[in-house]
């Protein structure tokens, strides 16, 4: 009798981290469920680099080097809808980060993945659009 071994790849569920969740990764990781894997989008990388260039954070968080980075889904209608929903639900006249939120939100909605964020307006908009949101406190 021959022994045959078969390698089976077990795909772990993924959760997208918003830019603020990467910066606050120690808090964000407590919202990950067993076996889930945190991922980020290219837009999150771009936002982090912008924050470094403006001196708002000292350097890229170390966790970035260990996270899977996924390509942004370019679906302009979803991006517009996310940005519009944020503006509608926000109490602010000027909502910073709308372009990035539109891109990150598009990934959440199109990939049907949960997101961890500390941005209340972004979270409210995504929930109103049917996304699963885990909120940083």
Task: Tag the structure with descriptive keywords.
137 residues; alpha/beta; 42% helix; 13% strand; globular
Short note summarizing the structure:
The protein has 137 residues and is α/β, with parallel strands linked by helices. The chain has six helices and five strands; from the N terminus they run βααβαβααβαβ.
Description:
The chain is of the alpha/beta class. The chain has 6 helices and 5 strands, in the order βααβαβααβαβ. It has helices spanning 19-23, 25-28, 42-53, 76-89, 98-111, 120-128, and strands at residues 14-17, 37-41, 68-70, 115-117, 133-135. It has a 5-stranded parallel sheet with strand order 3-2-1-4-5. Helix 3 (42-53) links the parallel strand 2 (37-41) and strand 3 (68-70). It is globular, with a radius of gyration of 17 Å. The chain starts with 13 loop residues before the first strand and ends with a strand. The model has no long low-confidence stretch (mean pLDDT 91).
Q: Taking all residues together, what is the mean pLDDT?
A: 91
Strand order of the largest sheet: 3-2-1-4-5
Q: Judging from the principal axes of the Cα atoms, what is the shape?
A: globular
Query: Uncertain runs with pLDDT below 50, 5 residues or more?
Result: none
Count of DSSP H/I helices:
6
Q: How many beta-strand elements?
A: 5
Radius of gyration: 17 Å
Report the helical percentage.
40-55%
Q: Which band does the percent of strand residues land in?
A: 5-15%
Strand-and-helix sequence, N→C? EHHEHEHHEHE
Structural class: alpha/beta
Distance between the termini: 58 Å
Described by strand count, sense and barrel closure, the largest sheet is: 5 strands, parallel
């Amino acid at each position: 009798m021959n022994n045959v071994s078969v390698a089976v790849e077990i795909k772990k569920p993924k959760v997208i981290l918003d830019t603020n969740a990467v910066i606050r990764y120690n808090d964000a990781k407590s919202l990950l469920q067993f076996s889930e894997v945190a991922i980020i989008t290219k837009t999150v990388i771009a936002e982090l680099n912008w924050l470094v260039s403006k001196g708002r954070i000292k350097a890229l968080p170390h966790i970035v080097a260990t996270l899977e980075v996924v390509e942004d889904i370019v679906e302009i209608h979803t991006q517009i809808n996310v940005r519009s929903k944020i503006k509608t639900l926000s109490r602010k006249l000027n909502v910073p980060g709308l372009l990035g939120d539109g891109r990150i939100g598009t990934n959440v909605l199109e990939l049907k993945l949960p997101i961890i964020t500390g941005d209340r307006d972004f979270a409210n908009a995504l929930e109103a659009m049917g996304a699963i949101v885990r909120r940083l406190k």
